[in-house]
Write a structure and sequence with these properties.
Strand order of the largest sheet: 6-5-4-3-2-1-7
Distance between the termini: 54 Å
Radius of gyration: 19 Å
Number of domains: 2
Number of strands: 15
Strand content: 25-35%
Bound molecules: copper (II) ion
Helix content: under 10%
Order of helices and strands: HEEHEEEEHEEEEEEEEE
CATH superfamily of the largest domain: Cytochrome P460
Structural class: mainly beta
């Protein structure tokens, strides 16, 4: 079978949505440029399953940040995370990204990522400039990357449905994250600048989900979770060149995934005496920690694929965070008798 792989990397702009352990193993990132990626030839909309109902999907609620509701303040300890950076970070005042009209027919399909942990499907497409990038190389100016976030089909019990190939079925389009790279872009993000990328997110009706003025969060997340060697994208140097599809594991009972700069589920309830297990994604190649605000438990740095477990013997609500990404990654586990 001819693999049309790759286009470029995928980026993914995540915003504070997701992140979880990985699906298929991916090769180590290479510092040297790999072979030229086979140019993706499939139109964006046909790379996966059915054509995306861009016009008809109703706008849905924006993904919520993982920040859990405040609860009883934990005792002050060295583990207490710093306060999150105020929401309004420096950002562009105007939209220089632009809704990419006709991207479903004119852009190239990059890859799909079934986020079983987050119950979403990430669907990545590139314009021709971005699709022509070679593995290990930065995206050229003029690159536009689209990341559709879909709600997957579930049955009446809330179980995910799969097609004959084992792929999650895209049900409704939630948001269209767009990143554009142009000369001089990104400077407005100041300390959170990620090269020459600027970010915006739209709803299917083309209204803003994340305005330019609020897109500092996008830059901050890419800045914290990626780096210059990856051109500030996520997974772009590995995944699209090896497969056009990946699947994050569905966290088992009493387990939490660390993926895409977030914990899944962000709120977990267990019985007293339960051992809870956290697993870092293998896809994103980002280190994380699992650290309780009150320091009642803490992992060491978890490399991709590594796990941390702790037995929670005392009832209560435990707020925890990633000490490497305290602005983006906060969650909670409630322990009940
Ligand atoms: Cu982290």
């Amino acid at each position: 079978m001819v693999r049309l792989v790759a286009a470029a990397g995928a980026v993914t702009l995540l915003l504070m949505t997701s992140c979880a352990p990985a699906g298929p193993a991916v090769p180590p990132a290479s510092a040297t440029p790999g072979p030229a990626a086979a140019k993706a030839t499939e139109p964006c909309a046909s790379g996966g399953l059915a054509v995306s109902p861009l016009q008809t999907a109703p706008p849905t609620t924006a993904p919520t940040a993982t920040t859990p509701a405040p609860t009883t303040a934990p005792p002050a300890t060295p583990a207490t995370p710093p306060s999150p950076t105020p929401t309004l970070r420096p950002a562009p005042t105007t939209d220089r990204v632009g809704f990419p009209e006709d991207y479903q027919t004119k852009f190239r399909f990059g890859y799909a990522y079934d986020r079983r942990d987050a119950k979403s499907v990430s669907y990545i497409c590139f314009n021709d400039v971005a699709a022509a990038v070679k593995q290990g190389q930065p995206f050229p100016r003029g690159s536009v990357i689209v990341f559709e976030s879909w709600r997957p089909r579930e049955d009446a019990q809330g179980n995910l449905s799969y097609d004959a190939n084992g792929h999650m079925i895209r049900q409704s389009l939630n948001a269209i994250f767009v990143a554009r790279k142009e000369e001089g872009f990104g400077e407005a993000y100041q300390a959170f600048r990620t090269g020459e990328w600027e970010y915006v997110a739209y709803r299917p009706d083309r209204s803003y989900q994340t305005t330019p003025q609020m897109s500092g969060n996008c830059a901050a997340c890419h800045s914290a979770g990626s780096n210059k060697d990856r051109d500030w994208t996520f997974r772009s140097w590995e995944l699209p060149f090896t497969t056009q599809w990946a699947q994050a594991p569905l966290p088992a009972a009493n387990e939490v995934s660390l993926n895409r700069m977030a914990f899944f589920p962000a709120a977990l309830t267990v019985k007293t005496g339960t051992t809870v297990k956290w697993t870092n994604s293998q896809v994103d190649k980002i280190d994380h920690t699992v650290t309780a605000n009150d320091n009642s438990f803490s992992s060491t740095t978890l490399k991709p694929g590594e796990t941390f477990s702790t037995t929670l013997t005392k009832a209560g609500i435990y707020m925890y965070f990633c000490s490497l990404h305290p602005d983006q990654m906060r969650a909670r586990v409630e322990v009940k008798d």
